[in-house]
C-alpha cells in the first residue's frame, strides 16, 4: 500500500501521520526532537499533526524550535494544525469556562499564532477542532478566504464534524474541505454507526483517525469488550505473522476503502515504524469482520 | 440589532413575533385586544403567529374581531397561521383520536378558514404544524400552488420538521420554504443536537422559536437543570445590567447567528417590551456558552 | 388500486410481491411449486423475491426447477434477487463468522449463480442485501456496470439501507437505484422514525416491505403492543367488512403515499389472495392513524 494519499489536487498527505498532542510530555530536547523528526521522515511519514491548544498552547513552539535547527526540513513535510477551542487555563485567565470561538478574528489570529510557533510561513492544512453550537459558516468562510489568499493556509478541513455539520460549512465555501479528522479505531466504531463513513465515501473525502490504538487500553484489556478485541487481535497477529497487535489495529484501519489516515502519537521510533509496516500487511475480509464483530459483541444482522 | 429580518425577497418578519396560542385564556374584550395589538405594533413587532387549532379553533376569530375594529392595521402586520392537526375535541365530534391531515382539500379548507376567522384576504405565511407519518409531498405541493396562485397565502413554511422532512417537502415545491418554527430556548437544545441548526444555516433559513422562555419554569426553578440555568441567568443579568432573566433568555436566542425569531406569548406589554429590549443587549460569547453549558450540565468536549 | 407500479422507465413491479425466503420449508414438489406460481400469476402478482442465501443457498434452485417445467412463464414475471451476505454454514466451510462481501468479484459471482439456479438469463432486479461497514461504492459501481452491460441484471437496488447509505452508493452510480427493500409493518415503524420514508418520498423511490405482517405475532397477541394492535385491527376489519386482520395490515401499507410494495411470504393461495384483495380496501385516514397510534402506544404530539 502506498504511503501517500492525494486529498485533492493540491494536497497529498502521508498515509501514516505523526501526531504531537503529547509532545510536551515527551520531555525531549530540541536536538532529540529534531532527531525524531528526521527518523520519522526517513520512514516516509511526511505529515505532522498539531493543534494550537496541545500542551496548553506549547507543543507547536517545541516543534518550531526543533525545526529551526534544520529549516530545510520544512519543504519535506506537510504541517497540519487546528483552532477553535479556547481553554480556560492559565493561558486564558479571562475565561471561566472552556469555549469554542469560530469568529473571523479568532480563526485568523490562531492560524497566525500557529505559523509563528511552528516557525513556518504556511500551514498545509488547518482544521476546525470541534463542531460548535455557536457557529457562523459565513464568517468562517471569510476567515478561510483571508488565510488562503494571503498564502498562510493552503488547505482547510474539520475535525469531529458530523455529515450535516460538514455539509453546512462546505455549502458556504468556494474550496472543498480536505478532510475530517475523527476518532476511529477497532474500539471506536462511532463513525461507522453515525453515517459519517458513508458521507465521507460519498464525497470521496479521506478521514484522518485520531486515537487509532484506542488509547492503549487494548494492550492491558480489562472490560469484556477489551478482552474480546485483545483475543481476536492476538489470533490475527499470529495468523498474519506480525509481532504486535498495534500493527493489526493499524492494518484494520488501512484496509478500509475510505482511505483512513491513522495519526500515530508515539515518540518511540519502533512504535511508529510498526504503523508504517502495517501498510504491507494483507488482512483478509473475514479477519477485518472478525475484529469488527469482536468490537460490537454481536454477529452481523 | 434590527427588529426586522428578511426571510426571502417577498417576506420580512419582525425579529420578535407575537404569539396567540393562549389568546382565549387572556379573556380580553375586542377593544382590549385591539389596544394590545396597537401597543405591540408600536414596539416594532409586526408579525403575529396563529394556528387554526389554538384555543380549540377559536383564537383566530378573537383576533379577527379585534382587527375588524381597525382594519387599517392589517397592512402594518404579517399574519402567520398553521394547519394540519385535527383535534378530537367537540369541534370535530367525528374523530376518536387526534390526527394529522395534509390532504389537498384539508390544507386549502383550513387556510381559507383562517382567512375568514382572521378577517383578512391573505396570510403572509402558512406553516404545516407538525411532520406526519402519513404525508404526500406532491399533494401538499398542489395545495400550496393553489393557495399561492389565488393570492390567499403569500409564503409557506413548516413547523417542528427535521432536516430530511424539510428537504423532502422542499424537493417537491417550486418555491422555497420560508422558515421552520421549532422549539428553542436555553432549556431546549434539541435543535442544536439533531442537526437542524446546521441544516437551517446551510440553507440560510431563519427559524422561529416557540416556547423561547422554556414554558416559564426557570422563573421558579425546581430541577437541577433549572437551578443551574437560573443561577447563571441571574449572574449574567447582573453582569449585563438587565432587570430580568427573560431578557437574558431572549438575548441568548437573538445572539445566535442562525437568525432565531422568538415568539413571545404574553399579554403583558412590559413582558413583550422586555423581548424587544433584548435586541439591544450585547452578550459576550463566553456568556452565551455559560448558559449553554449550564443547560447541558457538562463542560464542552 | 392498480396492481402494478412503475419504479422507473424500464421496471414495473406488481404492487404485491411473492417472497420465497421460506420456500425450502414448504416442502413442495416441483409440480406443486409450479402450480403455486401459476396461481400467483393469475392473481396479478408478477414479481418474485429471492436472495442467494435463502434456505441456506437452496431456494433459488427450487424455484428454478419448477420454472424449468414451464419456461414460457419467465416472460410474465419479474425476478428479484439479493447478494452480499456470506453465511458461515456448511455451504461456506471456510468461514468462522457471517460476513458481508461487496467486492466486485463476489457480486458478479453471486449474480451469475442466481441466474444459474433460477434457470434464467437475466435478473430484473438485484439488491444489495444489507448495508456493510466495509463497503467500497466505486467497486460496487463497477460490478453493477459489468452486470448491466452484459444484460445479466437489468436493474439494481438495495435492502435495509439508511438514507445516507443509499445516497452514498447512488452518488457513485450512473443508473438510479430502483428501490430499497426494508422492514415495514403496523408493528415495525422504524422507517417512519429514521427519516427513510421521507428520503424515499423525496426521491420518489418506492420501497418494498419485508415482513409486512410483522412475523405473524399479531394473530396471537402477547405483548401489550400486540394486544393494542390486534384490538384496533379487529375493530377496523369489522368496520371495513373484511374477513381477516392480515388484509387490514396490507391495506395499511398500501394506503401510504410512498408506494409501499408488500412482500407476501405465504405458500397458501388464499392468504396471498388476501393481500391482493387489500388493493380494493378503502381505509380512512383516521383508521390509518388509529393503527399507527396503537403501534406507538401514544397519541400524536
TrEMBL record, chains A, B, C:
Residues covered by the NADP-dependent oxidoreductase domain: 15-291
GO molecular-function terms, A-Z: oxidoreductase activity
Gene3D superfamilies associated with the record: NADP-dependent oxidoreductase domain
One cellular component (GO) term of this entry: cytosol
Keywords: NADP, Oxidoreductase
InterPro entries per the UniProt record, alphabetical: AKR_Detox_Biosynth, NAD(P)_OxRdtase_dom_sf, NADP_OxRdtase_dom
UniProt xrefs under Pfam families: Aldo_ket_red
Family of this protein: Belongs to the aldo/keto reductase family. Aldo/keto reductase 2 subfamily.
UniProt xrefs under PANTHER family: NADH-SPECIFIC METHYLGLYOXAL REDUCTASE-RELATED, OXIDOREDUCTASE YDHF
Name of the protein: Putative oxidoreductase
Organism from which the protein derives: Leeuwenhoekiella aequorea
Amino acid at each position: 500500500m502506498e504511503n501517500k494519499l492525494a486529498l485533492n489536487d493540491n494536497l497529498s498527505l502521508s498515509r501514516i501521520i505523526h501526531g504531537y498532542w503529547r509532545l510536551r510530555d515527551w520531555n525531549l530536547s530540541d536536538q532529540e526532537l529534531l532527531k525524531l523528526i528526521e527518523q520519522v521522515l526517513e520512514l516516509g511519514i511526511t505529515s505532522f499533526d498539531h493543534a494550537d491548544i496541545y500542551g496548553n498552547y506549547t507543543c507547536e513552539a517545541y516543534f518550531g524550535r526543533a525545526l529551526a535547527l534544520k529549516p530545510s526540513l520544512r519543504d519535506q513535510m506537510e504541517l497540519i494544525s487546528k483552532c477553535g477551542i479556547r481553554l480556560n487555563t492559565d493561558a486564558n485567565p479571562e475565561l471561566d469556562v472552556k469555549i469554542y470561538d469560530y469568529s473571523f478574528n479568532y480563526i485568523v489570529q490562531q492560524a497566525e499564532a500557529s505559523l509563528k510557533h511552528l516557525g513556518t510561513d504556511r500551514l498545509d492544512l488547518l482544521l476546525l477542532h470541534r463542531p460548535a453550537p455557536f457557529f457562523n459558516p459565513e464568517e468562517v468562510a471569510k476567515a478561510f478566504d483571508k488565510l488562503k489568499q494571503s498564502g498562510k493556509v493552503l488547505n482547510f478541513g474539520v475535525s469531529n464534524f458530523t455529515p450535516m455539520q460538514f455539509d453546512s460549512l462546505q455549502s458556504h465555501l468556494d474550496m472543498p474541505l480536505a478532510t475530517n479528522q475523527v476518532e476511529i479505531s477497532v474500539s471506536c466504531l462511532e463513525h461507522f454507526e453515525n453515517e459519517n463513513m458513508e458521507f465521507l465515501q460519498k464525497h470521496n473525502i479521506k478521514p484522518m483517525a485520531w486515537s487509532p490504538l484506542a488509547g492503549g487500553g487494548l494492550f492491558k484489556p480489562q472490560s469484556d469488550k477489551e478482552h474480546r478485541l485483545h483475543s481476536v487481535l492476538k489470533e490475527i497477529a499470529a495468523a498474519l505473522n506480525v509481532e504486535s497487535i498495534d500493527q493489526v489495529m493499524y492494518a484494520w484501519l488501512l484496509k478500509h476503502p475510505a482511505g483512513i489516515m491513522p495519526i500515530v502519537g508515539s515518540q518511540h521510533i519502533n512504535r511508529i515504524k510498526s504503523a508504517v509496516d502495517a501498510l504491507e500487511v494483507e488482512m483478509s475480509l473475514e479477519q477485518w469482520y472478525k475484529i469488527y464483530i469482536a468490537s460490537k459483541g454481536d454477529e452481523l444482522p
